Amino acid sequence: MKRELKHLTLVMSAYNKTDAHPSTFILIGIPGLEAVHIWISIPFCVVYLLALLGNCSLLFIIKTDSSLHEPMYLFLCMLAVADLVVCTTAVPKLLSLFWFNDGEIRFEACLTQVFLIHSCSTMESGFFLAMAFDRYVAICKPLRHSAILTHSVIRAMGLAILLRGTALLSPHPFLLYWLPYCRTNIISHTYCEFMALIKIACAETRIRKAYSLIVAFLTGGLDFILIICSYALILHTVFQLPSKEARLKSLGTCGSHVCVILVSYTPAFFSFLTHRFGHHVASHVHIFVANIYLLVPPMMNPIIYGVRTKRIWDRFLKFFSFPKPLD
């Protein structure tokens, strides 16, 4: 009862129905599962800590080992930074909500969260495409790999992905800022998301939804199509190799990349489609999947590459091993 009164007080104090821009929004977490928020927070916290440990370890290992300064691992570093930004932007506030019922978030902070989560997610997709291009060049044009993917080219590709994510997603906060929120300031989510804010606006939002849909296609959708095309060319080249051993070795170099793509794109596509077209999907299912998308890929990406890449795994074991005591 006290918790409900506290929540109601926050809503009344933060929101005035005559104000088109409330000073704060109220995040309520996962609707229908409020009673088990504290239990849900435990795996969420563990996954977040593993993501921090894994990605920071990956960045340190690749930075300190010059033999790993290759295109695939440099793109992996860029992906790790984007992963850290995405999960760190959302998870601390999520845990504060679950542990202390602190769902209040300032209007400006909410818009900042929208921009960082969506722009960095777009950058992640771009890095997956860059890694697919690296695999294409390494397998289809092996003799020209080092000449094509020089460090200057890698920096230019990384900068282009950064600028694309920033340029296409920077309008999102402004599109949301110019909307009136005269119905409510309660967001049925664990973090501020573009479509979650669109749903509580009391104005025409078709143009904004269309822009969001176009951006999603021009980034994640187009990237995924190009990744499929690159792997089609890779498979065409691999099946022309003379021996089975050569084919398996070539395909083995793509295994980690395929795994991280499946881990990332599966919840991303499900979350995107249910938010826009799955009107009959229970809200708690969508929100739970959206949180899995933010948490699981950042945790799994360094694990997949660490386990499947011997050089990274050996450096990781060496870094965290303790010297044996002398007899």
Would you write up a description of this structure?
There is one protein chain. The protein has a 3-stranded mixed β-sheet, with helices on both faces. The protein contains 13 helices and 3 strands. Helix 2 packs across helix 13 and helix 4 runs antiparallel to helix 7. 74% of the residues lie in helices and 3% in strands. It starts with a helix and ends in a 7-residue tail after the last helix. Residues 1-6 and 8-18 have low confidence and may be disordered. It has helices at residues 2-14, 37-64, 71-100, 107-140, 145-148, 151-169, 171-177, 194-200, 206-238, 244-252, 255-276, 283-308, 310-320, and strands at residues 24-27, 104-106, 186-187. The protein is globular. The protein has 327 residues and is mainly alpha-helical.
Count of individual helical segments: 13
How helical, in percent, are the residues? over 70%
* Class per helix and strand makeup: mainly alpha
- Work out the strand percent: under 5%
The major pleated sheet works out as: 3 strands, mixed
Radius of gyration: 22 Å
Low-confidence stretches: 1-6, 8-18
| Gross morphology | globular
Count the beta strands.
3
What is the CA–CA distance across the termini? 62 Å
* Multimeric organization: single chain
Helices and strands, in order, run as HEHHEHHHHEHHHHHH
> What is the typical, i.e. mean, pLDDT?
87
Strand order of the largest sheet: 2-1-3
